[in-house]
Amino acid sequence: MQQTGKHVEYWHRNLLVTTVLLFIWFVVTFVAPxxxxxLNAVVIFGFPLGxxxxxxxxxxxxxxxxxxYARYMNRLDQAYGVKDGEGD
Amino acid sequence: xxxxxxxxxxxxxxxxxxxxxxLIAVLALLERxxxxxxxxxxxxxxxxxxxxxxxxxxxxxxxxSEYYVAGRRVPAVFNGMATGADxxxxxxxxxxxxTLYLSGYQGLAYVMGWTGGYVLVALLLAPYLxxxxxxxxxxxxxxxxxxxxxxxxGVFAAVLASFVYVVAQIYGVGLIxxxxxxxxxxxxxFLGLAGILVCSFLGGMRAVTWTQVAQYVILIxxxxxxxxxxxxxxxxVPLPQAVYxxxxxxxxxxxxxxxxxxxxxxxxxxxxxxxxDYAERIERLPASLLEEKQRLSEEINARxxxxxxxxxxxxxxxxxxxxxxxTVEQARARWGEARQAALERAAVPSHHxxxxxGNSEEQRNAARINFLTLVFCLMIGTAALxxxxxxxxxxxxxxxxxxxxxxxxxxxxxxxLTAPAYAxxxxxxxxxxxxxxxIAKLPGWIAAWGKLGLVSIEDINTDGLLQLAxxxxxxxxxxxxxxxxxxxxxxxxxxxxxxxxSAALSTADGLxxxxxxxxxxxxxxxxxxxxxSTQWRLVISKSLLLVVAVMAAMLAAxxxxxILSMVAWAFSIAGAAFFPALxxxxxxxxxxxxGAVAGMVAGLAMTLYYMVRVQFHDIPWLGLHxxxxxxxxxxxxxxxxxxxxxxGFVVIVVVSLLTPPPPAQTQAxxxxxxYPRS
Lengths: 88, 678
Description:
Structural class of chain B: mainly alpha
Number of helices of chain A: 3
Distance between the termini of chain B: 21 Å
Low-confidence stretches of chain B: none
Shape of chain A: elongated
Oligomer: heterodimer
Largest sheet of chain A: 2 strands, antiparallel
Helix content of chain B: over 70%
Mean pLDDT of chain B: 84
């Protein structure tokens, strides 16, 4: 494939969004549970916060991350004209 | 074209869902008219398996692309649903809520691990694999790293991880069939096998995809129904996921009351005494074994001399004597287990929502490390299990692949957001209505599940009341017995059994296809006979499917004891073998063949080494003795991947840099993956 400036830019934007989203994933997955005991001191609607984050909060953040990535990349594909056809 | 197909599918599956709800309603009505529970169980099994078989037969195919990747025509939403069913196994459906019930916060590692892995799938793998667009994961490794070495290592790891996992599923099917239909366990296993084969044998991935969508519908209805009804009963809001915080607070109050009742203290003291007694006996082996035998004999003789002694007592004592361990080794093992069980009951339980409980800072840190490492391994494993990754070969385009991961996770969350609620509601019911009630007046489900050995009670302090310490529940019982615990009609129990069956069958199908795909496509077609005709390839694939399925069923019929930890091992194995090679293959052009092969082998070897040495002290059939070792940083064997994955990454990078860069052709392939076709 011909390497064009456009392609390089597309790939860099992809890497940037991937890195940012993976950072959020890391915080939710490893940093929040690390401090779960401290977070549990806060109670919202009966849920201790540390428990809630692991049982529901993190899961909802995961869906948002994937949803945002799919939307962002699908638009990027169009903007950079690299969209692949619907169906083979 | 794609949307028209989607519309058609939507109307089919809506009609199917409606039909299933009508079936439940009819059975509920019949139950009220006096239909015996056993027939309800039969009806659910019969109808659901018939539907799966019908879809399987309708989707039969002799086309290679249809057989391996469903013709790459599966719309994102339906691929998401199929992935959901593929993903949620008997372990998720039956085991998860029970694990959460027993270990509270600690069990949430499974909830996070089995969902967060999809972030890695979405961001690092799915779109690139779809762009690559072949048939199996070893296909990708072979193309990216050139030659058959990487392919063969990939095949070995794919077959190892999937086989371990599929045995667990078939075991689950056997368990459900024997419990709800009353078949013998072994017959249940082979019946389940038939159910699995009708879906995958004729139509491969195409048939499996469409049955999995049908199975998803049934399993999610079955999972939601009992806990929603329970939520209605306790809080009068039918949304358990949203309102269980309130119930969690009630549970906390109950826990604080119950944990320190004098009767609980007394029961725990007696368990502690029993544990100490076993410890002392183990200490004094072999003398203690002889003494025990002598003591029983003396007691039996004393009873025999006493004409008033009831015959029953004599018989019980004689059985105890007969069942004494035969050798010193057996005695050590069996008494050690008994001591461990008594110690567990002697410990003060911890609050459900407390994170990383423990009596000392060291214990708390060990709990924290194990939580985080388990989350890590489950996530990396999720992003490396071949039966999930191949699902993203089946979408029509890269964009559909991205969207499809979103749908997968949405459908999976429906169950995973509910499981913690399930556990809390069950705990509330049991603490509120069962603990501290008279043992003579316990509800019927305790006796019913006790007969199957999944619930046991023991009045150790002989006060006639059931203390919390005196009740032992097997984790599998929570989901299966919740309908009875909440006093719901039997039709709900039948529904739950049908859902559990769907979960096990759908996962087993996906796994079997992966195994046979790796063997027939990667080994036979790509390595042994590249000139093989299309028909011949499918014949080989179908015959292998039969052989592997029968082997798995035979192994499952042996009831291997550590089945649940075997599932966690599958994740560590897959994660260490595939994840570094796949990710570096896409994101680092310099990664080459030598690096990938060395890294995969090293990661896999590291994981297996740690697993085996921490888990087993002896492996008699291999002639290995005394190989056990102390775990590093208290990490359990189920999280062995936490060592294997970094080793894999480091070895790939170091070896790649020490050897020549990959050829220009390979670098061009990586370029192609990064930009969806213009």
